[in-house]
Design brief:
Elements: H1 5-23, E1 53-55, H2 67-70, H3 74-79, E2 82-91, E3 97-105, H4 108-117, E4 124-126, E5 131-135, E6 138-143, E7 146-152, H5 157-173, E8 198-200, E9 213-220, E10 223-231, H6 235-249, E11 258-264, E12 268-275, E13 278-283, H7 288-302
């Protein structure tokens, strides 16, 4: 069977993003997220579902004890400002268990962010919460600032039909799902790979000074590339980020708003535009003219 090089290239980019991102994470619990162990927040009420017994034997997990439940994966969740995790099990008369895990993050973009790095565009996306997808024995979805995983270790047609039922009931119990993060609307639809959007909380491209970055994959002709967006709180934040980036590359330029070409020895040539509070850019592209076209498309939405 011949390998589809375009799909393979996307898979490699996703893998590199995740590896670079995770490698830069420090195991530190942010001070404003500290909780006492087993403190009850009372903000999650799991629904009763006909034919299933609701069992809540798990403690509530917080940033300082999340490792007790998901061990090595906890660091990634903490970087996305994880707040608490509530878990329930639904058990039927045959003893089959469906588990619902509700990960609560500080804001919707962070719930979307951890969800986005755990999905791929080829999943079977369906209407759960704000967005979700279903596989044979699981449903994962986001709704406001919650990332929810509904899973089972059992097999069979009946149980596969039950997992989506439980997922929808849990989604309904969490209230109005709300929209996807607003910055995603600033990416042009032309050429965009559906459901390739991501939010990288920290260490984008392996650089500690690049934080809170939205990205999406694109395809145009023979080119597969990525657009990214940083929406900062002030022009000064944008300037500081560019200063740090140029210092890393060893380039000396006059820092002002407008287009910039940055030569990153690890990530190639990156074209960016700085305008007030925003920086947006394109990478992994061979043809500068194509890059400019898409930067202009994005700029027309941002401005």
């Amino acid at each position: 069977m011949m390998l589809n090089t375009r799909i393979f290239s996307r898979w490699i980019r996703v893998l590199m993003l995740v590896l670079i991102f995770v490698s830069g994470i420090q195991t530190v619990v942010p001070a404003d997220l500290a909780h006492k162990k087993n403190e009850v927040t009372g903000d999650i009420v799991f629904p009763e579902i006909e034919g299933w017994k609701l069992v809540q034997d798990y403690p509530v997990y917080y940033p300082e004890n999340l490792w007790d439940y998901i061990d090595g994966a906890a660091d990634a969740y903490l970087s996305y400002l994880f707040m608490d995790l509530h878990i329930a099990e639904y058990v039927n008369k045959e003893g089959t268990i469906i588990k619902a895990e509700v990960y609560h993050h500080k804001a919707p973009e962070y719930a979307f962010g951890i969800y986005s790095i755990e999905r791929i565009p080829e999943y079977d996306f369906q209407e759960y919460g704000t967005q979700g997808y279903a596989e044979e024995s699981l449903v994962h979805f986001i709704t406001t600032d919650y990332y929810v995983k509904v899973t089972t270790n059992s097999s069979g047609e009946e149980i596969r039909k039950s997992v989506p039922v439980v997922a929808r009931k849990v989604a309904e119990s969490l209230g109005d799902p709300g929209p996807m993060p607003k910055p995603l609307q600033l990416f042009p639809e032309k050429g965009k790979v559906t459901n390739s959007d991501k939010f990288i909380a920290d260490n984008f491209l392996g650089h500690q000074f690049m934080k809170r970055v939205f990205t999406a994959d694109y395809s145009e002709g023979n080119e597969d590339f990525m657009l990214f967006l940083m929406d900062k709180d002030s022009p000064e934040e944008c300037k500081k980020m560019l200063e740090d980036y140029y210092a890393f590359t060893g380039q000396t330029v006059e820092l002002k708003e407008g287009p910039h070409t940055i030569t990153d020895k690890y990530n190639g040539t990156i074209y960016v535009i700085w305008d007030k509070n925003c920086i947006w850019g394109v990478m992994n592209i061979e043809d500068p003219a194509t890059g400019k076209k898409f930067l202009d498309l994005m700029g027309s939405k941002i401005r």
